[in-house]
Automatic annotation (TrEMBL):
Protein name from the UniProt record: DUF3089 domain-containing protein
Pfam families, A to Z: DUF3089
Lineage start: Bacteria, Pseudomonadati, Pseudomonadota, Alphaproteobacteria, Sphingomonadales
Top-level taxonomic group: Bacteria
Length: 374
C-alpha cells in the first residue's frame, strides 16, 4: 500500500521542470560562447564558380532579442529527448538560427522535444511513447524565465521551425496574442508548419488578433510559410499547405516579398550539408573548396506564395544552368531509401531557403516598432 502511494504520487508530480537559470539548459544565450558563436562567414558561389567570402559581423549592443525553438532533430532513443546538447542540436542552430546574431541577442533553450526516433517510429506504424505536453511546458518555462530575467522591456522576435513552430504557435496563442506583452513583439517567424488564417484575411484562425506580415516595415505580425518545389506542388496527401477546416486556409508570407509576388531568395545553407534524410544533390561547386560554414547561391532560387488546388505554400523555383560549375539544385527533399516523400516538400530547408531574408526583416520590423512608439 505504501509503495502504491509513492508510485501514485510520483506519477502525479510528473517530470521535474528544468531550471532555465542554468546556462547548460540553453543552446544560445548572450555573452557566452555557445552554439550561436560559431564562425558565421558565408561563401557566395556565382554561376561561373567564382567564390566570394563575406565575413559575419555580430551585432553590437542590439536593441532586439530573438528567441528560437528548434525542430525535430534529436537522435535520443527515447520518445522525448534528454537535456544534453548533442551534435544534432548544435547543427540545427547553425542551419537555422546563428546568423540572427547579426541583428539581435540570441536565446535558444534546450527542451525535451519529441525525438526524431519517435517520429520515425510513428511513420513506420510502430509508435513509441512520448510526452507531448512536456516539450511545450519546457518551452513555456524557458520563455517565462526569459521574460522575467532577460527581456527588461526589449522588443523580441520568436522563431521556430516544424516542431518548434508548433510549440511557438501554442505559446503565441496562449501567452502573447491579445496580451500586453504583444506590444513588444516585432514578429513571430513560424516556419515549416501549418498556420491557419481566415480565407482571404490576414487575421483570424490560429491567432485572434495577431495579423500576418504584409510588408517589411511592420511589427507585431506573423511570417510563415511551408515550402515546395514549383515543379512538385503539395500532393493530395500533403502534410503541409492544406487544411480541411471550413473557412480557413494555410497562411503564406514570402519573407523576400511580404507584399506579394515572386522575388529572389537570399538563402544561406550550412556548407556541411548535414540534413538527415535529405536527397544528395552533389557538391556545391566543382573543383573548389568551401572554407566557410555557410554557402549562398545568388540567382539560383526565387519564390512566391501560391494558393491553388486547395493548397497555400511558398513555391520555390530552382534556376540552375546545366553546364556551369555551380550546383543546379538544392538538397531539401525528404528521402526514405530511394523514395522522395513528396508530401514533405522542401521541409528540411524551409528556413535555409530564406535564412538571410528572415534575418534582414528584423531591423526593418524594429524600425517600424520604434516608429509606432513615438
Amino acid at each position: 500500500m505504501i509503495i502504491e502511494t509513492i508510485l501514485a504520487a510520483a506519477a502525479a508530480t510528473g517530470p521535474v521542470p528544468n531550471d532555465y537559470g542554468l546556462a547548460q539548459n540553453w543552446l544560445c544565450r548572450p555573452d557566452q560562447r555557445d552554439a550561436c558563436t560559431i564562425s558565421r562567414d558565408i561563401t557566395a558561389i556565382a554561376p561561373d564558380g567564382t567564390l566570394t567570402v563575406t565575413k559575419f559581423e555580430p551585432a553590437k549592443a542590439p536593441d532586439a532579442d530573438c528567441f528560437y525553438v528548434y525542430p525535430t532533430v534529436s537522435f535520443d532513443e527515447t520518445g522525448n529527448s534528454d537535456m544534453v546538447a548533442n551534435e544534432e542540436e548544435r547543427k540545427v542552430i547553425e542551419a537555422q538560427f546563428a546568423r540572427f546574431g547579426a541583428q539581435c541577442r540570441t536565446f535558444a533553450p534546450l527542451y525535451r522535444q519529441v525525438t526524431l526516433t519517435a517520429l520515425r517510429a510513428l511513420m513506420t506504424g510502430q509508435p513509441i511513447a512520448a510526452d507531448r505536453e512536456l516539450n511545450y511546458s519546457d518551452v513555456r518555462d524557458a520563455w517565462k524565465h526569459y521574460l522575467a530575467n532577460d527581456n527588461d522591456g526589449r522588443p523580441f522576435v520568436i522563431i521556430g521551425h516544424s516542431q518548434g513552430t508548433g510549440l511557438l504557435k501554442r505559446l503565441l496563442a496562449e501567452e502573447i496574442d491579445g496580451k500586453p506583452i504583444a506590444t513588444k513583439m516585432l514578429s513571430a517567424m513560424l516556419i515549416g508548419s501549418n498556420i491557419l488564417v481566415a480565407k482571404g484575411k490576414d487575421v483570424g484562425g490560429d491567432f485572434q488578433s495577431t495579423p500576418l506580415c504584409q510588408k517589411a516595415e511592420q511589427s507585431g505580425c506573423v511570417v510563415t510559410y511551408v515550402s515546395f518545389r514549383e515543379t512538385a506542388p503539395p500532393p493530395a496527401n500533403s502534410r503541409f499547405g492544406k487544411t480541411d477546416q471550413a473557412g480557413m486556409e494555410v497562411a503564406c508570407t514570402n519573407p523576400a516579398a511580404l507584399g506579394g509576388g515572386r522575388a529572389p531568395l537570399r538563402s544561406a545553407f550550412a556548407a556541411s550539408r548535414s540534413w538527415e534524410m535529405a536527397r544528395d544533390t552533389g557538391p556545391w561547386v566543382k573543383d573548389a573548396n568551401i572554407s566557410t560554414g555557410y554557402v549562398a547561391l545568388p540567382g539560383l532560387l526565387s519564390a512566391q506564395c501560391v494558393n491553388e488546388n486547395g493548397a497555400s505554400y511558398l513555391s520555390v523555383s530552382v534556376d540552375g544552368v546545366a553546364d556551369d560549375p555551380r550546383t543546379d539544385d538544392v538538397p531539401g527533399d525528404v528521402v526514405v531509401g530511394s523514395t522522395v516523400l513528396q508530401d514533405w516538400g522542401l521541409h528540411l530547408i524551409d528556413v535555409s531557403l530564406a535564412y538571410d531574408d528572415l534575418v534582414a526583416l528584423v531591423p526593418q520590423q524594429l524600425k517600424a516598432w520604434k516608429a509606432g512608439r513615438k
